Amino acid sequence: MFTVSYRFNIHPHTNEAFEEAWKEVTQLIYQHCNSLGSRLYKASEDSYIGIAQWPDKQTWDESDVSSFDTNGWRSKLRACCESVEKLDELELIHDLWAEKAFN
Q: Cβ distance 69 to 21 under 8 Å?
């Protein structure tokens, strides 16, 4: 499994619009790019961390949400952001999250 993490610094008071756009873009990526989904964490009032999972790096490299950006969700997401930074590209070694490891 391949994971990519991002930091989204958003404009003040755009939390609701950002969260809605992030959710829609993530669903499009899941439906059209073979991602394994993503999680969004709030780091501070105007900062979020997104963790996206992929089967492998090649699948992530070949993904292109711009070709099917239904209803302009990608543009709506970017309009909420002051900056988007890719933090890390990670290869999974061990998976001990409770939902998988301890059930």
A: no
CATH architecture of 2-101: 2-Layer Sandwich (3.30)
Strands 2-10 and 81-91: antiparallel
Phi, psi (deg, nearest 5) at residue 76: -65, -40
Q: Strands, DSSP E only, in the chain?
A: 2-10, 37-44, 47-54, 81-91
Phi, psi (5° rounding) for residue 35? -75, 170
**Rounded to two decimals, what is the model's pTM?**
0.87
Nearest-angstrom CA–CA distance, 15 and 26: 16
Six-digit token pair at 21?
């756009």
Beta bridge partners of 49: 7, 41
Q: Report the alpha-carbon distance of residue 83 to residue 7 in Å, rounded.
A: 8
CB 81 within 8 A of CB 11: yes
* Per-residue pLDDT reduced to its tens digit, 55-87: 999 999 998 877 777 788 999 999 999 999 999
47 pairs with which residues across the strands?
9, 44
